[in-house]
Amino acid sequence: MDSATVVLDQVIAPVPGGIGRYALNLVRALSSRDDAPTRLLGYVPRVPRETIRYLEGLIPLLDGVEQSPFPRPVLARAWEKGIAVPKRSLSYSPSLFAPLSTYGRHIVTIHDTVPWTHPETLTEHGAAWHRAMGERAARFADIIVVPTEAVADALSSVLALGARVRVIGGAPSLDLVVPVDSGLRRLALNVPNHYIAFVGTLEPRKGLEQLLTALASIPDLPLVIIGPTGWGGVTVEELVQRTGIDPDRVHALGRLNDADLASVLSASRALVVPSIDEGFGLPVLEAMSLGVPVIHSTAAALVEVAGASGLAVDVHRVNGTIDLAEALTGLSDEKLVRDLASRGRARAAEFSWDDSAARLARVFHELA
Fold first, then answer.
1. How does pLDDT run across 96-127, given as a tens digit for each residue?
2. Predicted confidence (pLDDT) per residue in 190-199, tens digit
3. How many domains does the chain have?
């Protein structure tokens, strides 16, 4: 393989979320492998020069970064219609923001089926755009990458992909290391001494309202919320008011860098992932890698990734918040907490970005 173009807009997006984290870690691992394409060229919408320098620092082994003459909103609309698509012999897009056409070979990642199965949890425009780009991927992509078997199964019911699907999951970030000054960092962030954590972009499908409802029935246990504001009008203040939980028990920290994230997450009693649906659920593995017990919903991808090393609760059924409250109360059992921490570390160790990059390299070779 001579060269490949990698679309990296998600890495520099204002709200990169889990997809941006996936793209960064996977491409960075791929770029260091001998079996990767000889040249990996990044491609992004029009952004300031300092953003390009930032991206080059994140993935130093890239062989340059090209820019579209158009900013992302314009390019997203254009690519949806097959306009302004750069001609590249081989492209890899870690999301549906992909330059798809009849020219060249294309690898595209579809992270979940939410735009089809739970469109009400997205903006109307966002759901429609993702469905349209999914149809373009089904038409033009040579290989479709998904993060879990759960997504592969679900996607087969909404898109005709045949034998083009390959599963390439994520792994705990190598940057997620607990720093020596973690206690001082938590102090600076005004984090309480005893708490559970929620990590994710604030949006309707993440199940934060169900978590707050469950917590409202339990005395004393605080919640630390880590993640940027997303879409759907989800705000911590409104959810706190709606669920009736004491506002003093809820600490919203916003988006954190990896050092602060590791500091806060590693000291939590548990991570709770009550999502309606997920494509992978990277916070599950990252918490497990730090020895933090995980309570998660029964979304198929979360069950697959956790591998019976967390506590699965059917949060979104009738009385599901009662079951979640009971699971949270169970964290007072020290033996259970130690068992979950041990099993979680072992489960997280089964995943690595190098393994994921090796799978992606094999996909590139399929198209060589």
1. 999 999 999 999 999 999 999 999 888 899 99
2. 999 999 999 9
3. 2
CA atoms of 207 and 202, how far apart (whole Å): 9
Q: Provide the residue range defining the domain that includes 156.
A: 3-171+352-366
- Same domain? For 230 and 166 the reply is no
| Residues ≥6 apart with Cβ < 8 Å to 150 | 300, 301, 303, 304
Query: How far is 227 from 264, CA to CA, in rounded Å?
Result: 12
> Does any domain span residue 177?
no
Distance from C-alpha of 84 to C-alpha of 82, rounded to nearest angstrom:
7
| Statement to judge: residues 109 and 252 lie in one domain | no
Q: What is the pLDDT of residue 347?
A: 98
Same domain, 66 and 38: yes
> CATH number, domain at 89?
3.40.50.2000
The mean pLDDT of the chain is 95
pLDDT at 31: 96
End-to-end Cα, the chain, rounded Å: 6
| Alpha carbon separation from 117 to 63, 97, 168, 273 (Å, rounded) | 38, 20, 22, 19
Look at residue 201 in the predicted model and tell me its pLDDT: 87
Is residue 231 scored above 90 in pLDDT? no
Please indicate, yes or no, whether residues 60 and 194 belong to a single structural domain of this protein: no
